[in-house]
Amino acid sequence: MPVTRLHRVAVLVLEGAKPLDVGIPAQVFTTRASMPYEVRVCGAAPGLVTGGDGLSYHVAHGLGALEWAEIVFVPGYRFPDREAPPRAVVDALLAAHRRGARLAAISTGAFALASTGLLDGLRATTHWHYTRSLAERHPLVKVDENVLFVDEGSVLTSAGAASGIDLCLHILRGDLGVAASNHAARRLVAAPYRSGGQAQYVPRSVPEPLGERFAVTREWALHRLAGPLTLDALARHAGVSARTFSRRFVEDTGYTPMQWVMRARIDLARELLERSERSVEQIADDVGLGTGANLRLHFQRILGTTPSDYRRTFTKGE
What we know:
The chain is an alpha/beta fold and 318 residues long. Helices cover 47% and strands 12% of the residues. It is built from 14 helices and 10 strands.
């Protein structure tokens, strides 16, 4: 799809900003042929911002970048539960939101968004270490400690640094489609998609090698979506009982195995709709759903639209 214009992204670096949290949106959305975004890193004022973990940042832009941006990322920062961001920062975030910009927090950046009042009455998350503090400081926010990220439309929040990648890929999927998101994930050597409903951390009682084995099974399944994939076949590949596989799979992904397979099939269908001219019937066969009617049924149930309308959305610029 030809690029008609660049989407404008601001990364707002606050005092004590965490290095990974700053770097994730700056790298994911950096301008390249496959990524129609322009990124400006900013602070409360241009110049040096003292970060966390021994790093500081020299930012070229002040809060004026928020007047320009369509998406504003607020990376996590140290000691978010001690005091609110400066009033000028809160006002700039509110003004950006009023103009229609999306505000996205990574990790403890959720505290800055909560300070605006924009999260009141909405679901939100943050790093698991700070979820209780966020709930205590902002009792009107519906804090969910058991998810990787929360999308409330114009305001989005995520858990620790790694889930910031998941949030960025989620935004890419909505903006540019599955193909672009998967391309970015491959470039980052990251999982193509983890559900926002996945738990923030795996219980310590779970042996790590089993988690690795399940990841191999998921990769195995992604290459066999066109054929029959049953719970027993997946469990047999992982070398565990179907019952153990089902229980652990939900813990790892937030979905039952068959829900995950269906969403993987729908994701593959989305990519084919975006990048090929194959008919809906052909794509249904390609992804293991058999008939166009079956594809339309599950597409509508999961995405709330039809394959034809989805294709038009991602080919309208051609």
